[in-house]
Amino acid sequence: MSELPVIPASLLPADGRFGAGPSRVRPEQVSALVDAGHNLLGTSHRQAPVRNLVGEIREGLSEFFGLPEGYEIILGLGGASTFWDSAAFSLVRRRAQHLSFGEFGSKFAQVTDRAPHLEPSDILRADPGSRPAGPAPRADIDVYAWPQNETSTGVIMDVTRPQGTDPDALTIIDATSAAGGMHVDISESDVYYFSPQKNFGSDGGVWFAAVSPAALDRISELSRSDRWIPDVLSLATAVENSRKNQTYNTPALAGLVMLGEQVRWLNANGGMAWAAGHTAATSSLVYDWAERTPTATPFVADPQHRSPVVCTVDFDDSVDTARLLSVLRANGVVDVDPYRKLGRNQLRIATFASVPQSDVQALLACIDWALANALS
């Protein structure tokens, strides 16, 4: 294989990481981790220093999201994928409806659909790059669920309670790649859950959720029923421990340290309003570039459905994106590969809160250079 061309150093971004998760980690988060190595890492998560950190994170997230009265931030281990199992045990009473328009929405739908103690789920599907019109209220549905941002395709969905539903029904939003980078009115959901390895620049393996009084009541109700719920998946157990600023089992402290630093940074910069404005402006650079590049086009056709945090761009058959990705990686510009199961001639570029506009501008300049000099 011939040696890959060298992109001029003047074009390269200061930081070449544009992955849709795990995302780039800011140097200040690494410094916080080094500092924690002197007095926090390697200590008990049941003791005050770690519980204080968890409490600070919960308070910081409450501030960031502007939690309504009665809502709480709870946490548990295992990431968003584990939360799906917890939700099947502790939130769905009988039957869930899911909006499935990408990989992650479909995975949650599969969990509740296959759960032996639940009725088959009502799954409203749309092709990748598009989305369903919205939830369809039904008398037998007690949970409505969808992603705010579908990480695999770069399609967004509004967070608005479905109208005409049973007032006891819950709205559950997967916010893993949206939280910390998109606007949300938390009062329009009952559970807004996420892993922190996207806009929050931390590690996976833990989940957080903003939960409403109605959701807390449902969790309590199902915990008292005759339904068997494993302790490690019980949201009642998570609530009990979260109120003590701890987790049921031992957490990875490094991720919590990085998350704590990121939450402080986001709030100091202006919170949700700043983060949402930043990602909207940064992602518009990508979409505007794709609109004016002859060989490229935004994958999501409707501009109103395009994600501000995960930008997907298709190329025509004249562009060998496999070689383009190899050239970029050889020059330190990494993780702009399309989602593997889509199988498209595509780039997927994360414009999370930690990604500055200058780096995105440099990335686009590198792609232009490669298209002109390395793929022709």
TrEMBL record:
<dbReference type="Pfam" id="PF00266">
    <property type="entry name" value="Aminotran_5"/>
</dbReference>
<keyword id="KW-0663">Pyridoxal phosphate</keyword>
<dbReference type="InterPro" id="IPR006272">
    <property type="entry name" value="Pser_aminoTfrase_mycobac"/>
</dbReference>
<keyword id="KW-0718">Serine biosynthesis</keyword>
<dbReference type="InterPro" id="IPR015424">
    <property type="entry name" value="PyrdxlP-dep_Trfase"/>
</dbReference>
<feature type="domain" description="Aminotransferase class V">
    <location>
        <begin position="143"/>
        <end position="333"/>
    </location>
</feature>
<dbReference type="GO" id="GO:0004648">
    <property type="term" value="F:O-phospho-L-serine:2-oxoglutarate aminotransferase activity"/>
</dbReference>
<dbReference type="InterPro" id="IPR015421">
    <property type="entry name" value="PyrdxlP-dep_Trfase_major"/>
</dbReference>
<comment type="similarity">
    <text>Belongs to the class-V pyridoxal-phosphate-dependent aminotransferase family. SerC subfamily.</text>
</comment>
<comment type="pathway">
    <text>Amino-acid biosynthesis; L-serine biosynthesis; L-serine from 3-phospho-D-glycerate: step 2/3.</text>
</comment>
<keyword id="KW-0963">Cytoplasm</keyword>
<keyword id="KW-0664">Pyridoxine biosynthesis</keyword>
<dbReference type="InterPro" id="IPR022278">
    <property type="entry name" value="Pser_aminoTfrase"/>
</dbReference>
<keyword id="KW-0028">Amino-acid biosynthesis</keyword>
<dbReference type="InterPro" id="IPR000192">
    <property type="entry name" value="Aminotrans_V_dom"/>
</dbReference>
<protein>
    <recommendedName>
        <fullName>phosphoserine transaminase</fullName>
        <ecNumber>2.6.1.52</ecNumber>
    </recommendedName>
</protein>
<feature type="region of interest" description="Disordered">
    <location>
        <begin position="120"/>
        <end position="139"/>
    </location>
</feature>
<feature type="compositionally biased region" description="Low complexity">
    <location>
        <begin position="126"/>
        <end position="138"/>
    </location>
</feature>
<comment type="function">
    <text>Catalyzes the reversible conversion of 3-phosphohydroxypyruvate to phosphoserine and of 3-hydroxy-2-oxo-4-phosphonooxybutanoate to phosphohydroxythreonine.</text>
</comment>
<keyword id="KW-0808">Transferase</keyword>
<keyword id="KW-0032">Aminotransferase</keyword>
<dbReference type="InterPro" id="IPR015422">
    <property type="entry name" value="PyrdxlP-dep_Trfase_small"/>
</dbReference>
